[in-house]
Amino acid sequence: MVKYYGYLVSDSWLHQRALDVGYPPAKTPEDSDDIISLASIDVMAETGVLSYARVRRIKTPKGKYFWCIALACDDPITVGERMSTRPPPEAKYKALKEALGKDGPPHWYRAI
Question: The organism sits in which domain of life (predicted)?
Fold first, then answer.
């Protein structure tokens, strides 16, 4: 199973981000999927990681689901997605860390 190195964000955080930047609230499950996509692209673009980061769904060991803004992965096959297998230096993702309100470094998480 692929592991991703990044920061976790919840559906609710992404929905709030979308509202904060001017997107309308989701009214259907399809709207919700679109809003999550738009909000994640927005925050990755604003913080300069869009060219190499990806958003992936993960499940924590406690069984909770989150979105992971992934900065690297451990699977060489996934490198075809243009993802590095090595974590970037903090200077490259510092703006993302601040935008997400995170205190520590990213972590490795398993994809679902």
Answer: Eukaryota
Q: What amino acid is encoded at 73 in this protein?
A: C
The residue type of 19 is L
DSSP 3-state of 68: strand
Within 13 Å of residue 106, how many CA atoms lie on the same side as its CB? 29
- How do residues 46-61 score in pLDDT, each as one tens digit? 999 999 999 999 988 8
Pairing of strands 65-73, 3-9: antiparallel
Distance CA 65, CA 27 (A): 21
Question: Tokens 């259907």 belong to which residue?
Answer: 28
Angle formed by the axes of helices 11-20 and 29-46, to 10°?
Answer: 70
CA 4 to chain centre: 10
46-105 pLDDT, tens digit each? 999 999 999 999 988 899 999 999 999 998 676 566 788 899 999 999 999 999 999 999
70 has which bridge partners?
Answer: 6, 54
